[in-house]
Amino acid sequence: MKPAVQQRELMWCQKETAEFKNISITNFTTSWKEGLAFNAILHKHDHTVVDFIRMTKATPVDNMDISFKIAKNRASAT
Q: pTM to 2 decimals?
């Protein structure tokens, strides 16, 4: 991916998650490892799909499972 495109995508992710105090996206690797960033973006666009307030950094695998299940369900519905 070209650096300019990657920088724009990173900025979009930062903007989408700015309201979430426990999310800090600085890159496309470690910033995503807890699964919270994915779920924050999903929650921002539809508050009904994920109970973001109950999520913690202590359950990264569960967090990722939730976000990918939601994304899969949404993709198959279109």
A: 0.86
